[in-house]
Write the structure tokens for this entry.
Amino acid sequence: MKNVLVTGGAGFIGSDFVRCFVERYPAYTLVVYDKLTYAGNQDNLRSVSERPNYRFVQGDIANHEQVRAALDAHEIDTIVNFAAESHVDRSILDADAFVMSNTVGVHVLLDEARKHGVERFLHVSTDEVYGDVENGYSVESDPFEPRSPYAASKAGGELLVNAYHVTHGMNTIITRGSNTYGPYQYPEKILPFFISEAMDDRPLPVYGDGRQIRDWLYVRDHVNGIDIALHQGEAGEAYNIAGEDQRINIDVTHDLLTRLGKPTTLIKHVPDREGHDRRYAMNCDKLRALGWQRQYDFDRGLAETVAWYRDNEWWWRKIKTGEYLEYYNRQYAARLAAAT
Ligand code: NAD
Ligand code: TYD
């Protein structure tokens, strides 16, 4: 029996974790704790809302009282922390919320978890803490060289997790995932953004030359990696979770257009993201040694993802209104006007 607080469980990866865990571990109680920012969405949890082992609490990880109340009320013994501001472009426009949630929020969560006597604390981090990796593959012991405000705020959170392990002996685990994709991803990240825009015959703004490389990890493979790290990882350790499927952005864009039967004239090369990392790539032998194995290569994962966005317009069309359009204009209007 475990009572698991899943912070950020109404977001993309957190909700997949919850959908997976309510079935895989019927003896666990899964308590989603989420602030419901623009990216948090109760629709993501619709399929589990009637499950007897599912609960929902609205709250902020950066608020001591709210965190303490949730830990007490649900007798939490395990925390899996997904809660974060997650989009690099937004962190370039305004990083306040990133530092507050991704660094200060992690501190508050750790502090309350320690006082409450939480037995296991898994913190979900990212390959972006390693920075731009021109050649080779990052291993867990590599130094942090974050370059975007998002990556820096995530690195700050990780340093605090490690400090609570060393100083207070907390039982912590860190996972560092690569670029994740799949159903229910907010349509600001490149894949759901480009798929939904192309479905409406709208321009696809490719940053710079489009030759940047990302390593694509299907969301359920990411969740399976977290599962193994949570149950078998060694306290104080970090584990890379890599898709081991590196792709060049412009190739991915062509691939999507082919699958959707849309013309390449939708592609617009726009001024590059500031400080854009050219490549991320990780070695994940350490997690593999615990038994993790990828189930989805990029071709299979992308086929599933394209099919899901095609079949679930109800989910993304209502997101692409209001605040989303304000963000879209701030991020893309001038860029598209300068497109080549
Ligand atoms: P997301 O933006 O879809 O979801 C984030 C969730 O956190 C939302 O439900 C939001 O409401 C919630 N949240 C934000 N601030 C909060 C706060 N202060 N208190 C409580 N809840 C808060 O993000 P995602 O893509 O699902 O990412 C989840 C985690 O995985 C993040 O920590 C992210 O850094 C990490 N990660 C993401 C990727 C990726 O490619 N998406 C890759 C590696 C790691
Ligand atoms: P993104 O999905 O924002 O993830 P991350 O920045 O965390 O890697 O972007 C993935 C890649 O796609 C990255 O190299 C930036 C690029 N990109 C574009 O070219 N155009 C876009 O509109 C977006 C959102 C991303």
